[in-house]
Design a protein that fits this description.
By secondary structure, the protein is an alpha+beta fold. Helix content is 47%, strand content 22%.
Length: 372
């Protein structure tokens, strides 16, 4: 995939979000893209990137977000996916695909305050985290992040999932929606049934599932249906739920045997169909492990900045996946390094061709360096 297409999508994403300044600004969108990519490449803070590149500081970059909000960032991400849609359809060949939902926690170090910092430290030393819920295509080697939304403390996760489902349906034909154990909610099942979609949730093992599994033989599959109650807005509702239990199932000869409990509205004759379908969602966890190698560090408590960084990195991930499928494959780190290097070369070449009296960028970066 040509570099100018990558530049175009990244610059377009920023253009839809950033606050517009006058023509006398010393920085262009290319400068901001370069700073953000370089910070991601080095897994560093944007201020440290400024010292390396003599470009806009982190304060300058994030000051452009003063008129941004969650809706604006989410729409910009969706718009860029729309621009890539012809490539995504070409790669998927218009097939139905499984979509997986997952949450990711970005560590926060400091005092817990506000509604967006969850009291859960995902890594040692962290005091809390910013949480995001995302939906991803997990079709064989084709994995794309179709949406990501921030999660407020005490937020209605069902509402966020519904919003992501509506977004995902714009781009692909979903075969089924796959959920991890953290999404086991009667209200969510009721919403999925209301939306008329196929779903499969890994359910927690409670008293009744443990008792039933003890009575089953190794490798046996069993179904159970119940009517359950859940509360919402001080009202009580009922939902009919179907469970599939599989006792000590081992997919491969040298593998480990597990007890599986799924809540699903799909039907299969053999247990490996349920297990294989669920195993597809592990691809989204792999995606987040890969994204950990290109993170932009920040200590800010500003939830809008945090969401912007998350959406920018997700967009870079999608561009990398498209690049691998359309040209020579490489690691995400190498892809970011190559794009950043080419952007730097382009900026320096453009600055070198300008007359001395109009080299605004060079003078402004010198002032930036001196002030730091």
């Amino acid at each position: 995939m040509a570099r100018h297409h990558i530049d175009k999508w990244l610059k377009s994403f920023l253009k839809q979000i950033f606050f517009v300044v006058g023509r006398n600004s010393p920085y262009k969108l290319e400068d901001f893209v370069t700073v953000l990519l370089d910070a991601a490449e080095h897994e560093d803070f944007t201020n440290n990137t400024c010292n390396r590149l003599e470009g806009p500081t982190g304060e300058t970059v994030f000051s452009r977000l003063k008129e941004a909000d969650f809706d604006k960032i989410s729409k910009a991400f969706t718009n860029e996916l729309t621009n890539m849609l012809h490539l995504i359809k070409r790669l998927l060949r218009n097939r139905k695909v499984a979509l997986a939902f997952d949450t990711t926690d970005e560590p926060y170090y400091g005092k817990l305050e506000g509604l967006w910092i969850h009291p859960h430290g995902p890594v040692r030393g962290s005091t809390g985290c910013f949480r995001f819920i995302s939906v991803s295509i997990v079709d064989r080697e084709h994995k794309f992040l179709l949406g990501s939304l921030p999660v407020r403390v005490g937020a209605n996760v069902v509402k966020l999932v519904s919003e992501l489902i509506r977004t995902a349906k714009q781009f692909v034909k979903p075969e089924a929606f796959l959920f991890d154990r953290g999404f086991d909610s009667y209200e969510l099942v009721a919403e999925l049934q209301k939306l008329g979609v196929k779903y499969q949730l890994l359910w927690k093992k409670t008293g009744w599932t443990t008792k039933l599994l003890k009575k089953m033989k190794r490798g046996q599959i069993r179904e159970a249906s119940f009517t359950r109650k859940y509360s919402r807005n001080k009202s009580t509702f009922k939902v009919k739920i179907r469970f599939v239990l599989i006792k000590k199932y081992k997919r491969y000869g040298k593998g480990r045997a597990y007890d599986w409990v799924f809540c699903t509205n799909t039907r299969h004759k053999f247990p490996h169909y349920y297990v294989d379908k669920y195993r597809k969602r592990w691809g989204i966890e792999t995606a987040f492990r890969v994204l950990d190698n290109v993170t932009i560090k920040t200590t800010t408590k500003n939830e809008v900045i945090r969401y912007f960084i998350n959406a920018f990195c997700c967009l870079v991930y999608n561009l990398w996946k498209l690049n691998n499928l359309l040209s020579t494959p490489s690691s995400l780190k190498n892809f970011v390094c190559k794009v950043t290097a080419e952007l730097k070369l382009s900026i320096h070449s453009e600055a070198a061709t300008k007359p001395p009296d109009t080299a605004e960028f060079s003078r402004s970066t010198s002032v930036c360096t001196a002030s730091n």
